Amino acid sequence: MRNLIIAGALALIAAPAFAETLKEVTSHGIILTVQGMDIDVTYTPDGKFTAMDGQVTGTWRIDGDKLCTTSSVDPNETCVAYPADKKSGDSFDLTGPQGTATIKIK
């Protein structure tokens, strides 16, 4: 029982850290680097995003530590977990269904 209470408390403490990373991502936007190509991604508060100078559009939502998106390239929703405690200027690698990419929060 004690372990369950500790696990629940840790989950509550950790949730804001993930939320802060995703707030930074969706507030500032990102540069997504895949196979040497930099892709500028901009998020809007109404749950939409654009990339590649508007050539790619889509929707986004936050689900815990995951950013879930659909796009004009892939209408299937994809959710990818983001690391905690990242802020504007930070870079990190993410692995999703399409492989690994480097993310830099603008």
How many domains, as an integer? Answer: 1
CATH class wording: Mainly Beta
Q: What gap, in angstroms, lies between the N and C termini?
A: 43 Å
Proportion of helical residues: 25-40%
The parts where pLDDT drops under 50 for at least 5 residues are 1-16
Mean pLDDT: 83
Largest sheet: 8 strands, antiparallel
Walk across the major sheet and give the strand order.
Answer: 6-5-4-3-2-1-8-7
How would you describe this structure to a colleague?
The protein is built from 1 helix and 8 strands. With 106 residues, the protein is of the alpha+beta class. The chain has an 8-stranded antiparallel beta sheet, covered by helices on one side. The N terminus is likely disordered. A hairpin with a 2-residue loop joins strand 4 and strand 5. The longest helix has 27 residues. It starts with a helix and ends with a strand. It has one domain: Lipocalin, CATH 2.40.128.
What are the key terms here?
45% strand; Lipocalin; alpha+beta; disordered N terminus; 8-stranded antiparallel β-sheet; single chain; globular; 1 helix; 106 residues
